Amino acid sequence: MSAAPKTPSRVxxxxxxxxxxxxxxxxxxxxxxxxxAAGAYTVRAAGALDVVELVRKGVQPEIAGDRxxxxxxxxxxxxx
Length: 80
Prior knowledge:
The chain is an alpha+beta fold. The chain has one domain. It contains three helices and two strands. A two-stranded antiparallel sheet has the order 1-2. A hairpin with a 5-residue loop joins strand 1 and strand 2.
């Protein structure tokens, strides 16, 4: 049996708001961003008490995909 073909990858520039840029080899922009974000963030499902506590502190719930620029954040760019 032969191995499944590898998904082609390319190098992406991942730049944060402070203009720090990283070169990340990945199969998509989303994968490159996940790779970088994994070092800065953690994610878990919020429990009811988490929501209550944070809303009381003034944290507003956000809806993913609710901003116009959410769509462009992970759209595959054309090759340079």
